[in-house]
Amino acid sequence: MTENKSISDLSAIGNIVHDKDKxxxxxxxxxxxxxxxxxxxxxxxxxxxxxxSSAVSEPMLGRIRLQxxxxxxxxxxxxxxxxxxxxxxxxxxxxxxxxxxxxxxxLIDAREKDLEEEAIQTLSELMEYANATGGNCLKLAVTALxxxxxxxxxxxxxxxxxWALIGLMRALPFHLRAKKQWLPEELVKRHKIDGRRMRDLxxxxxxxxxVKEICGIVSNLLQExxxxxxxxxxxxxxxxxxxxxxxxxxxxxxxxxxxxYDSSLAHPSGLRMFKLLWKNLLGRF
Length: 285
Description:
16 helices, Farnesyl Diphosphate Synthase, globular
């Protein structure tokens, strides 16, 4: 089947994830077909929440939009979805599969951070944000497969958190241009980064060292997750290939000496898909 034909066969939510969240789309396509649409629904919801700050002209409008989604989720749980291309399939999913509502709530609440103008202050705060967004998103996807074991949820949380962190480091210049600083002030001080130079989008060795520190945290999270690899059900492992992709982005940053402005970061490694397919064949992540 050609790519064009496969794309045309996608549902509306499938097209959203394919167009806006390609890495998660790839891992979803490795799932058994019976689970794909449910996971795509959750990832499409995640995208709708994540784009809030870029879709509004001022923070108050963003908070109104997030409140709309809080109410929409409540209605989905009551099987009375409001009109939106995502809410109907989400309500259908919730009618069939028990998903923890607190994960939705925490994910939406965390996106309030995107609307705040001040820089994030501590590394702990950054970790909490990454866990509430990337971690909870992956936990929801895993739960949609009917898996709720605590050790599996822990692994999903670790990989999802790592995924969010590496995404923030790769997008650091983009966010700085938008006047949003995701590098914690704690690291700015520790590495003696010139805040003004950073906000003016100037490269520096000090900034690279801070990015390297975050990449180290990502690598540690992935290693901790892999320590429990044998206990993960086979049907879940495709979703956890975000670990393989996160690792490839860490390696790419390492080759660029952790410079988030390096132009090579815009071009994914040619070996990335090969590694992904090979690990999928081996049943590993």
